[in-house]
Design brief:
By secondary structure, the protein is α+β, with helices and mostly antiparallel strands. The chain is 25% helix and 22% strand. The protein has a single domain, classed as HIT-like (HIT family, subunit A), CATH 3.30.428.10. It is built from three helices and five strands, in the order H-E-E-E-H-E-H-E. A hairpin with a 7-residue loop joins strand 2 (25-29) and strand 3. The structure holds guanosine-5'-monophosphate and zinc ion (ZN).
């Protein structure tokens, strides 16, 4: 996907603060953090959003496993944290390349905005 900002990020075409990578996913610091810990886990392959996990059934589970590891690594596992997957227009998705937000380091409100 030529115009996808997260594809460019995965390919090293735009700078990012990478905190983890393996053969399937990359994790980076969000450029506009909404909490003391705000990481994004994104698949290397371009999937538009969560609905596309139908095409890659093991990938969602792998992302969740990585998110748990990153929460521990970031020191927020014990206190608690939040994982968010904004999906589609009403879900608030602004980048159409599947990504999981890991938010932590402060108390989260509910309901979300
Ligand atoms: P969404 O609104 O799609 O759920 O989340 C997109 C997220 O990507 C936002 O939190 C936004 O700050 C982040 N973001 C947008 N562009 C970049 C970028 O170039 N680099 C990084 N690291 N994060 C980005
Ligand atoms: Zn992409």
């Amino acid at each position: 996907m030529q115009d996808c900002i997260f594809c460019k990020l995965v390919q090293g075409k735009i700078p990012c603060q990478k905190v983890y990578e393996d053969e399937r996913v990359v994790a980076v610091r969000d450029i506009n953090p909404q909490a003391p810990v705000h990481l994004l886990v994104l698949p290397r392959s371009h999937l538009e959003n969560l609905l596309a996990l139908d095409e890659a059934p093991d990938l969602g589970g792998h992302c969740l496993t990585v998110l748990g590891r990153l929460a521990r690594q970031a020191g927020v596992a014990e206190a608690g944290f939040r994982v968010v997957v904004n999906t589609g227009a009403e879900g608030g998705q602004s980048v159409n390349h599947l990504h999981f937000h890991l938010l932590g380091g402060r108390a989260m409100g509910w309901p979300p905005g």
